[in-house]
Hints:
Radius of gyration: 15 Å
Strand content: 5-15%
Distance between the termini: 20 Å
Strand order of the largest sheet: 1-2-3
Oligomer: single chain
Shape: globular
Mean pLDDT: 81
Order of helices and strands: HEHHEHE
Amino acid sequence: MRQPLLVVKSAATVDVFSGGRFVLGLASGDRPVEHPLFGADFQGRGATFRRSVEILRAAWARHADGAGMELPDPGLDAERHLDVPPKPTGPSVPLAIAGYAQRPVEWISGCAPATRL
């Protein structure tokens, strides 16, 4: 339910300040009453969650020679040179996924290399 690019900046900042010891916990949300408060669709939470994880990974990636991230849905391509600092200490901030996000366990285990709750 949070804006993924704001999560990117916040999580990477904590990761850098902690010397790479931060693990970001994520979930799609399980309380139908909360979603309308954020303008979010409860039934579509799985797709929203999966897309948000894709955005996190794209924003944390290091881009060569000033190229930016590619996010076709909001109209971003590498030529726009959008890069979101800071970058995590490793290739990505480790993720701990709680729940299923309306997906099979295999998706979650492939999505969360650090930890799976």
